[in-house]
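Hi support team,

I've been running sequence recovery on a batch of backbones for a student project. Most finish fine, but this one hangs at about 90% for roughly twenty minutes before it completes. I'm not sure whether the input is malformed or the queue is just slow. I've pasted the structure tokens below so you can try to reproduce it. Let me know if you need the job ID as well.

Thanks,
M.K.
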């Protein structure tokens, strides 16, 4: 039996999706399994790596069974993984912590002045492209671990990213790729390797970081033990894979200069592919190495997009079941309201502000509410608010790089026709939706697997796999109105950031009356 199929895993914040592709990159089937995120303390965001592995095994077996595919048909597997995770293992390969910090964990604030005591922030950022808040990067998380979890830190043999841990479970190989390594906080985008002075600044040994191997290189084979658990054949090839941002960039654009997309998921970002990283110390776009040396994906983001829309669902639509059908109802509500949501604005920063926003203490909120407003107004305002927040970050990229053509929308939010229209009018640029939408990261991972096992030679097949399902031009009249609202939204956001900073400086008294 020929090995004509590829399996790709998209290890996301909300769950794991396994996708099956044929040798030409055509999607055959997919399966999804949710897992939990834990918030044990303020600024903590943790997941359980063993949950990732259990869910990988579950969706693999389900995918093979439901698609009628045999394990013997799988030529290669590869992963896309959410970024900035810090998974510690000891010399025997044992996981040292049941729960580990993921990308949005921001506990390491106390480590910032220590790390940058003798290391200029500007030099670090311009070398790494790490534009997200510094405390989210792996090296700062390790500094926090050394101080507050010394018994764990002392036992660390290697630290791994999310997809690297799954690769280890599959193959016993301990390694990472340039794209994931570029989110460790210690990677030089020009030399495409670790930078010694950053380890010196953290006083952490470079030896605990995994070796860097190409994203589209075979790192090993599925072991006998892993085969029993996940249902793949022993000996199945496994490629190194890449971070989610890079896999999604690859799956949407291939390696084409200037291609841009919006990923509309739990968080949301806008990313452009180029042969020069977009670096600006004032606005701090964040950059990941791409799948091939010499290419980069530079991005700007908001931390809460789909998550904020989900919060709207869970808070304002409690009379409806918490399922995907509720989003259809919300789309109908939004469609019944005119642009501008009858005077209501929404800021979606329910997880704080990104590096491209005025403060990490930026909080969400509604503005313009009157007794005449309805639930429908608030639902549409939430969709417009996400688009406005992203438009503000898009303007940052536009100021740094020439962006031509259209904006490809992908991710779960791209399925909403109402939201696509809102984005076209607020972005003031053509918006395109294709058949790939939520499969972009999985397609990117599958392309890495195809190149790793010799099935493909390059990434030229990817653009042709996108079949346009809708192409929207902005409406000039609606955009003119939104441009005025965007000015108000920008002023309001700055005010919210100032007030957020003041709120963050307050502490609730432990006892006694508030004076």
């Amino acid at each position: 039996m020929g090995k004509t199929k590829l399996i790709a895993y998209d290890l996301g914040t909300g769950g794991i999706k396994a996708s099956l592709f044929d040798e030409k990159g055509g999607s055959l089937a997919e399966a999804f399994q949710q897992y939990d995120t834990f918030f044990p303390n303020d600024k903590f965001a943790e997941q359980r790596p063993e949950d990732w592995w259990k869910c990988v095994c579950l969706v693999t077996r389900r995918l093979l069974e439901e698609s009628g595919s045999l394990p013997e048909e799988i030529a290669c597997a590869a992963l896309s993984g959410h970024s900035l995770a810090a998974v510690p293992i000891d010399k025997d390969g044992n996981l040292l912590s049941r729960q580990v910090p993921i990308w949005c964990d921001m506990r390491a604030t106390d480590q910032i002045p220590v790390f940058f005591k003798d290391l200029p922030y500007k030099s670090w950022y311009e070398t790494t492209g790490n534009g997200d808040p510094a405390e989210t990067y792996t090296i700062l998380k390790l500094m926090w671990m050394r101080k507050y979890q010394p018994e764990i830190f002392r036992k660390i043999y290697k630290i791994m990213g999310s997809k690297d841990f799954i690769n280890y479970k599959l193959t016993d190989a301990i390694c990472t790729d340039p794209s994931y390594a570029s989110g460790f906080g210690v990677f030089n985008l020009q030399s495409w390797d670790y930078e010694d002075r950053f380890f010196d600044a953290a006083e952490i040994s470079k030896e605990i970081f995994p070796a860097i191997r190409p994203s589209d290189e075979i790192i090993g084979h599925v072991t006998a033990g892993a085969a029993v658990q996940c249902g793949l054949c022993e000996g199945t090839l496994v490629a190194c894979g890449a971070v989610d941002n890079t896999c999604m960039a690859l799956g949407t654009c291939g390696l084409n200069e200037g291609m841009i997309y919006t990923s509309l998921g739990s968080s949301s970002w806008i990313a452009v592919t180029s042969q020069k990283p977009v670096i600006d110390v004032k606005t701090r776009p964040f950059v990941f190495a791409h799948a091939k040396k010499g290419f980069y994906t530079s991005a700007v983001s908001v931390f809460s997009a789909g998550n904020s829309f989900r919060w709207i669902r869970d808070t304002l639509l409690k009379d409806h079941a918490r399922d995907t059908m509720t989003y259809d109802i919300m789309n109908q509500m939004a469609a019944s309201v005119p642009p501008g949501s009858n005077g209501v604005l929404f800021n979606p920063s329910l997880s704080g502000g990104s590096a491209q926003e005025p403060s990490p203490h930026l909080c969400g909120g509604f503005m313009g509410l009157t007794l005449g407003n309805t639930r429908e107004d608030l639902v549409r305002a939430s969709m417009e608010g996400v688009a406005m927040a992203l438009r503000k970050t898009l303007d940052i990229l536009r100021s740094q790089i020439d962006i031509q053509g259209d904006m490809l929308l992908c991710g779960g939010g791209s399925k909403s026709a109402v939201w696509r229209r809102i984005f076209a009018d607020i972005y003031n640029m053509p918006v395109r939706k294709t058949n790939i939408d939520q499969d972009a990261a999985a397609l990117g991972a599958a392309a890495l697997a195809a190149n790793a096992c010799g099935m493909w030679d390059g990434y030229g097949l990817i653009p042709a796999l996108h079949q346009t399902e809708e192409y929207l031009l902005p409406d000039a009249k609606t955009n003119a109105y939104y441009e005025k609202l965007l000015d108000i939204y920008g002023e309001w956001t700055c005010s919210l950031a100032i007030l957020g900073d003041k709120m963050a400086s307050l502490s609730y008294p432990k006892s006694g009356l508030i004076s």
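--
Follow-up from support: It reproduced on our side and the slowdown came from queue contention, not your input. Residues 476-504 form the longest helix (29 residues). No action needed from you.
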